[in-house]
Amino acid sequence: MAVFTPLSDAQVAAFLEKFDVGSFVSLQGVAGGTENSTFFVTTDRRELVLTLFEQGEHAELPFFVDLLDYLDEHRLPVPGTIHDREGIALHSLAGKPALLFPRLPGRHPEAPNATQCRVLGDTLGRLHVVSQRFQGHRPNPRDLNWLRAVHHKVLTYLSPEDQALMKDEVDDFESAFNQYGELPQGALHGDLFRDNTLYDGNQLGGIIDFYNGCTGDLLFDLAIVINDWASNEDGSLNAQRHDAILSAYQARRPLTAAERALWPTMLRMTALRYWLSRLLVVYVDPPAHDLTPHDPERFRTILKARILFGALPLPEAS
After folding, report:
1. What is the pLDDT of residue 1?
2. 3-state SS, one letter per residue, for the chain
3. What average pLDDT does the segment 81-99 reach?
4. In the chain, what are the domains?
5. Which of 42, 80, 112, 163 has its CA 20 to 30 A from that of 10?
6. pLDDT at position 33 over 60
7. Does 214 have pLDDT greater than 80?
């Protein structure tokens, strides 16, 4: 979240008149983030979040609206979009696509405890069960096909050792996934890091920022969560967090035999996905705004740890 397109009080007050949300009181830009302009908006009735979309494929925004509304209807803790008096959610403001959301309670957990991890695992399991019936479709833009197609763009910036590491991993991924049929599919969050959740104590107030949302392997989503939520500083896995998430998740959606077999590979693949995407931002496609990119080294460390130590045993459903 950040502010790249400033808005005036008058602009926002006029925008809110389309909605049944009360009268404008105040506007506050939200710092941080890399992609969109985000504002906290207070009316005389409620607290809201206003997002302007600065980049990306605007034609894909209806998919995100439909996904958020679908999950909200199924009582998942997500910010379902606010529709205007005519039932329309997606609007234009200051020449940018704009969406209005309820502001969810809580803050990002920097060091999640076991209870917070169990709550996340349970919620993600519920989300994945529900998401298998979602009718929308958006192919995963960061899957194995993407890794295969773009990893060569960063090779010249890497040491010979890291070049070999990246190429060998992509080859290994292809070989492993070719041994199995299609894994369970559904709608994914696609970027469920700690800073895309809000907690009020141990209660999950909300899962936010679905703009990497897509449809694809549910296991891909779960591996992203484990690599962020359950990794120690040296990249190794924290058994307590790992087991808390996965036990609660499997109580909602037990993994299939194929998913269990591919789990160590998926952990490595999603680690490489973030190592590569961060390298691309640093060397190939820097952000449009004056922002500090995320450090690619974090996910190189995680990838090396997954190769060196493998995956922890998968717990059974709790």
Report:
1. 44
2. CECCCCCCHHHHHHHHCCCCCCCEEEEEECCCCCCCEEEEEEECCCEEEEEECCCCCHHHHHHHHHHHHHHHHCCCCCCCCCCCCCCCCCEEECCEEEEEEECCCCECCCCCCHHHHHHHHHHHHHHHHHHCCCCCCCECCCCHHHHHHHHHHHHHHCCHHHHHHHHHHHHHHHHHHCCCCCCCEEEECCCCCHHHEEEECCEEEEECCCCCCEEEEHHHHHHHHHHHHCECCCCCECHHHHHHHHHHHHHHCCCCHHHHHHHHHHHHHHHHHHHHHHHHHHHHCCCCCCCCCCCCHHHHHHHHHHHHHCCCCCCCCC
3. 96
4. 9-102 (3.30.200.20), 114-309 (3.90.1200.10)
5. 80
6. no
7. yes
